[in-house]
Amino acid sequence: LFLPSFQDLFGVSMVVPLMSLHIKSLGASHTVAGIIGSLYGIMQLFSSTFVGCWSDIVGRRYSLLACILLSALGYFLLGTSTTVFLFAISRVPVGIFKHTLSISKALLSDLVSERDRPLVMGRFNAASSVGFILGPVVGGYLTELEGGFYQTSFICASIFLLNAVLVLMLPWSEENTGNREHQRGAKGTGSFSAKASHGLRLKSATNGAVASDSLFQSPWIQVATVLKRIKGIACSDLWDIFLVRLLMSVTILLYYSNFSLALEERFGVKPLFAGYLMSYSSALGVLAGCLLGPITRLYQHNTYRLLLHSSTLTCTLILLYASALSIWMVILSSTFLAFSTTIGRTCILDLELTIGGNEASGTLLGVGQSVTSVGRIVAPLLAGVAQEFSPCGPPSLAVGLALVAILIMHANKQKYRSHGNVKLKNQ
Questions:
Q1: Burial of 85 (0-12, 13-18, 19+ CB in 10 A)
Q2: Membrane-spanning residues where (predicted)?
């Protein structure tokens, strides 16, 4: 699963940076390009919850294959887009079904115990990030060739087809057996692991026999089941988890929203330096993902405490960046911020699955992606308003939002510490 995740973001990051140049070459105005980009974001916002919940119903194998193949179709259509209309059409299947990484994370959650989940998710995110670092370099080189954008799009579609083959090669028939053997070997590790084993057994049943039957149900029954599960999430006591995720997502987006412009206005450095600094931070993020195992062991697998400390560190570092008097302070804050944000992102995901229960991991991850999409919509607006007052306006606002998230975590610390499942209303 690490290899497809690497190839996924490698292919996507080859194409995405070139799309604005391509749509301009097709004669689209800035407004039209912005509308198409916004429509893609809106489709992602609403589809992530439904696709995640659908993966809980029909099983990871079929939903992951469907998302990979339909995403491949979208990038193939992008490679044939010679008009603005065709460009917009090509974004529809990708906007609705490009949730391959979320379903892969749900599958990983099915296969490992709660104790090992932060470590595995950290490595998964590290593999994805390496692809995101290398992709733009290869895409920039290919676009220099004649018809480079079209070639890059076809290569991306081919990578998704290769991912479909890799997913088919996974030992699906052995998944449930492997889970049960893993659980039997972990029975003596205490109540925490026992609860993880119970969740894994439940998920094995859900993704095995039940999922195979659900695949052949009528589409209307599947839709009704999806809506019932989403209602259960909406009526549960998970609002604080998703609110913390929203606040921290907006916090990070505000930090990066005007990064290049702010550095140029405050310190007179060129945008190229800002690009190098962001690449440096991405590389450190990969390292942080690989170090999550030792860090979680240091915290005795207490995800809540690790999330609280990483969020506090993130808040402090953004405050340091907002008040920095020299570029060296910016470099220092960016260095440690790469670690705190990577750890925080993995911890909030783990906390969602731990407190929300193991029965609907796809739905929970889908709702989490929708929450992040809301942050991507809200953050540019907040950054633009804050930028009117000062180049330090967006990071200063980010500090305030991070403080609110930390206060929410403090107010609900008993629920986080108990690691008890929050029962959904439809259970």
A1: exposed
A2: 35-57, 63-89, 149-170, 238-257, 277-299, 306-331, 393-411
- Angle at alpha carbon of residue 353, lines to 350 and 359, rounded to 5°: 155
Instruction: Spell out the residues 6+ positions from residue 288 whose beta carbon is closer than 8 angstroms to its own.
Output: 122, 126, 338, 339, 342, 343
- Residues 6 or more apart whose CB falls under 8 angstroms from that of 372 comprise 245, 246, 249
CA distance 173 to 163: 19
Structural domains present in the chain = 1-170 (1.20.1250.20), 236-426 (1.20.1250.20)
Q: Which helix (H) or strand (E) holds 144?
A: none
- Report the b/e string of 314-331 with b at 16+ CB within 10 A: bbbbbbbbbebeeeeebe
Q: Which tokens in the block code for residue 150?
A: 């079209």
Range 314-321 contact pairs with CB under 8 angstroms and sequence separation of 24 or more: 314/248, 314/251, 314/252, 314/340, 314/341, 314/344, 314/402, 315/251, 315/399, 315/402, 315/403, 315/406, 318/251, 318/255, 318/395, 318/398, 318/399, 318/402, 319/395, 319/399, 321/255, 321/395
What is the Rg, in whole angstroms, of the alpha carbon atoms belonging to the chain?
Answer: 22
Would you give the distance in Å from CA 228 to the centre of its chain? 24
Distance of CA 148 to the CA centre of its chain: 28
- The first and second tokens of residue 406, run together, are 């930390």
**Is 386 exposed, middle or buried, given 0-12, 13-18 or 19+ CB atoms closer than 10 A?**
buried
Question: DSSP string covering 4-43, please?
Answer: HHHHHHHHHHHHHHHHHHHHHHTT--HHHHHHHHHHHHHH
Per-residue pLDDT tens, the chain, 427 aa: give them. 899 999 999 999 888 878 877 888 888 887 788 788 778 878 888 888 888 888 888 888 889 999 999 999 999 999 898 899 999 999 999 999 999 999 998 888 888 888 888 888 888 988 888 888 888 878 878 877 788 889 999 999 999 999 999 999 888 754 443 343 344 334 333 333 333 333 333 343 344 444 445 555 566 676 666 666 666 665 667 788 888 999 999 999 888 877 777 787 888 877 678 777 877 888 888 888 888 888 888 888 888 899 999 999 999 999 999 998 889 999 999 999 989 999 998 898 888 888 776 556 777 888 888 888 888 888 877 887 887 888 888 899 999 999 999 999 988 877 766 554 444 444 4
